[in-house]
Amino acid sequence: MASSITILAAILVLSHTCQAYTKFPDGFTFGVATAAHQIEGAWDVNGKSENVWDHLTHTKPWMVADFTNGDIACDSYNRYQEDVDELDYLGVDFYRFSLSWSRILPTGRIDQINPDGIRYYNDLLDALAAKNIEPLVTLFHWDLPQSLQDLGGWANPKMVDYFRGYADVCFREFGDKIKSWITFNEPYEICEDAYGDEKKAPAIDSHGVGNYLCSDTLLKAHAEAYHLYDETYRPTQNGKIMISINSIWYEPKDPENAQQVTLAETANQFKFGWFAHPIFTDKGGYPEVMVANVAAQSEGEGLARSRLEQFDDYWIERIKGTSDFLGINHYTTFLVTGPGVDPTAKSPSWLKDIGAVTTMEVGGDSASEWLRVVPSGFANLLRWCKKSYNDPLIYITENGFSDRGTLEDYGRISYYNDYLSAILDVINDDDVKVLGYTAWTLMDNFEWRAGFSERFGFYYVNITDPARPRTPKLSAEYYKQLIANRELPQDDKFKAPSARRQ
Ligand code: GBH
C-alpha cells in the first residue's frame, strides 16, 4: 500500500514537472540591468560631482561590509565597450542602465550641464545601437548629488522641481535614442532604507517621519517627470515611461489563519501599495489601511496629526495613471506570523506602523540574508498585481540571486529557472500580462552596503585587478541559450552535479 502511494505520488510529481511551461510567448523580451553608481567608477573624473554614495563611503567607510566603494567599481566609465560586448554575447534584446545625475548636472540643478556626462552617455547609447540593443534607462537609481542632499534631499519638497529639471535635460539630450524610460528605481528603498533607516545612503534614519516626507516628494516628482515627457517629448520621441517598484512579497505563514492572511495583505499594501496604489488604482492616494494604521499609531504617540501626510485632490489626480507599464523588481518572499511589533522595529517607524511580525524562515538561501528563494511567492505577487491594479502591462525590471562569487553558479541558474518558470505559469494559467524580463545583473558590481561581498552577476569581476577583468559564469551560458531559443534550457550541464539525471 505504502509503495503504491509512493509510486502514485511520483507519477503525479513527474507529470506535473513534464507539464511545466518552458516556451516564452512571441514578443516577450529579455534584458539585463545595472546602475550607474554600481558599475561606472570615475567618481570625480571630468566634471562629475560627489553623490550621496560617494559621500557616505568616503566619510564612513565602515558602513560597507568589505570597505569597498564605487570609486572605480567595474570601471564602466572607461570600459563601457566591454559591457556592450558582453551584452552582445548574451544576445539580450535590451540593456537597462541608469544615468548618473551628478555626472550630467554637477550642481544637481540645471544651471550647469557637464558636456563630458552628455558625451559619455551618447557614446554608450551609440555603442548599444551598433549592436541592436535597446536601451531601457533609469533616471534615478539612488545616486543623488550630495549638493541636493545638503538641502534635505527627498525630504525637501523643492526636489520636485530639481528632478523635473534633471529629467528635462535627459529627455532633451538623449530622447532621440531612448524609447523606454524609468523614473525611479525602487521608491520604497529610497524612502524607507535611506530616510527612514540607515540601510542606504544618505542614511538619515528619520524613522516614521522622513520616510513619509520622502514618499510625498518622490511621488510628485515622478508624476511631474511623467507629465513632462507625456506632453512635451512623447509627441515627437514616441517612447514609454514607467516606474520600477520593488516588492518583498508577504504571505501568511499559515494560509488557513485568517488573521495572518489579513496582516499579509496589510504588509503588501505598506510595501508595494505605498507607491503602487497612488499610481495604478482608480482611487489613487495611499492605500486605505496604510492611512488608517499610521493615523492610529500617530494618535497613540500623542501627535495631533498623522505622520503620513495625504495628497490633496489635485495631487491625487496628478499622480494617478502616470506609468505606461508596471515595472516590478522582485527578489524574495517573507512570511507573516502574527500581529504585533516586529522585534527589529524602531519607534515610530514604517515597520511598527504595519503592526505585523514577519519571518524570513522560508525557502532556500543565498549570500544575502534578506534574499530567500521562493519562486511560488513571485507567482502569487504577479497574480495579486493583476487583481489589485486593473490587469496592468508588466515588465519585470529586476530579478536575481547572490552568491559569494563562483564560476559554476548552479544556485543562480536554478533561481532563474524557477523564477522564470513562475512567470510562465502566471502568463499561461492566469493571463497575467508580463511583457519582458530583466535579470539583475550583467556583472558583479558594487552591491551598496554589501560592497563586493554579495555577487549577482552573469560575469565574475576580479576587483583586485585594475583592469577589472570579467569572466562569464555558467549562468551567462544559461541566459544566452535561454534568449537564443526563447525557452528554458533543459540541458543537464546547467544542473548541479547532484541534481543531474544519470
Ligand atoms: C535591488 O534592490 C537594487 O535595485 C539593485 O541596485 C541591487 O543591486 C539589487 O537589488 C540587489 O540587491 O541587508 O537589511 O540592509 C533590491 C531590494 C532592498 C535588497 C534592501 C537589499 C537591503 C536589506 N533591496 N535590501 S539589508
CATH topology of the domain at 25-374: TIM Barrel
Biggest sheet descriptor: 8 strands, parallel, barrel
CATH architecture of the domain at 25-374: Alpha-Beta Barrel
Q: What's the order of the H and E elements?
A: HEHHHEHHEHHEHHEHHHEHEHEHEEEH
State the end-to-end CA separation: 28 Å
Spell out which ligands are present. Answer: ligand GBH
Residue ranges: pLDDT <50 for 5 or more in a row? none
What is the number of strand segments? 11
- Name the CATH class of the domain at 25-374: Alpha Beta
What's the oligomerization state? single chain
What fraction of residues sit in β-strands?
A: 5-15%
> What is the helical fraction, as a range of percent?
40-55%
- Summed over residues and divided by their number, the pLDDT gives a mean of 96
CATH superfamily membership of the domain at 25-374: Glycosidases
Instruction: Describe the strand arrangement of the main beta sheet, using strand numbers.
Output: 1-2-3-4-5-6-8-9
Radius of gyration: 22 Å
Overall, the morphology is globular
- Number of helical segments? 17
Which structural class should the secondary elements be placed in?
alpha/beta
